[in-house]
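forwarding from the other thread:

> can someone predict this with tryptophan?

sure thing
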Amino acid sequence: MSRILTGIQSSNIPHLGNILGAVQPAVQLSHDKANHAIYFIADLHSLTSQRDAAARRESVHAVAATWLAFGLDTQRNILFRQSSVPEVCELTWYLSCFMSFQRLQLAHSFKDKSENGADVNTGLFTYPVLMAADILLYDTNVVPVGKDQKQHIEFTRDLAERINHYYQKEIFVVPEHRIDEEVMVVPGTDGRKMSKSYNNFINIFLPEKELKKVVMSIETDSTPLEAPKDPDTNNVFAIYRLLATPEQTADMRSKFLAGNYGYGHAKTALFELILETYHTQREAYHNFMNDRSLLESELKKGENKAREIALPVLGRVREVMGF
Ligand code: ADP
Ligand code: TRP
């Protein structure tokens, strides 16, 4: 049995990029009986950039509702809120005393922001150590993440190996990362990578009218309606093909090439495809968001199971370090 763990930050409602790139593949992995999945909402990490309490609570619920709406089975797997097992902060301290300061200064997550002159708080600086604690606290075997997180997993492996070696004991499981090189990059409404930072995202849970407005706002060029269009250079087609069947994709491609098919037509088709594809998940998401006590009880169930795994691991660390 392989223990798979990953976290999603709670800084917004998950968008189509998060769903296609992270949530759906992770739920798929959790269906494999050879895996045991622990997925959590990284609300402690979100404090490095989000200080508003109400927004954080709302976003924790939105992320939880998304996992559940996409079919994560919480009977067999674990879904929990990172901060509900605060022992992770204790482990962060232990790990930070083994983490090289110079090495941490080389973390991309910190370097990019500090070089751009952003307000860099110490939490952002030690972010990778908290992430290492997330992983090591649960005896994780495999961490599925995007390419941008690879360095953090390397830090985690080094910490685990260094501490195991120092105390001459297998205190930590040394985790592997799993980076899907094929992972799709979902383009946003402006053609750049879909991201909450660029404000170019599609929130599939919006009410129909608002969702339609967002889809209609996808940037396109001004080729006239009659003219044939190159499907491979337009944003609408780029998003459509990620959701469509091969037949639907081929059909839209030939319509674009034939001419007399406008971007407006394609946007309407995309809007309808989103509604159709995510009909069940949209409904389930809103059911969860309208029943906060159900959401909280799901998170509580996960917290209890997570703590059962975490405490013995933390016990090993305290023991070996003399606490
Ligand atoms: P954002 O860029 O909106 O801040 P995050 O960095 O919080 O998103 O990403 C959360 C997860 O979603 C990560 O696993 C990331 O790889 C995935 N993800 C984010 N945006 C996209 C995208 N446009 N296409 C595919 N996957 C994405
Ligand atoms: N840093 C990750 C991200 O921004 C989120 C995260 C926090 C995480 N802790 C984790 C991912 C532990 C994997 C394992 O995407």
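Residues 10 and 56 are 7 Å apart (CA to CA). thats all i got for now
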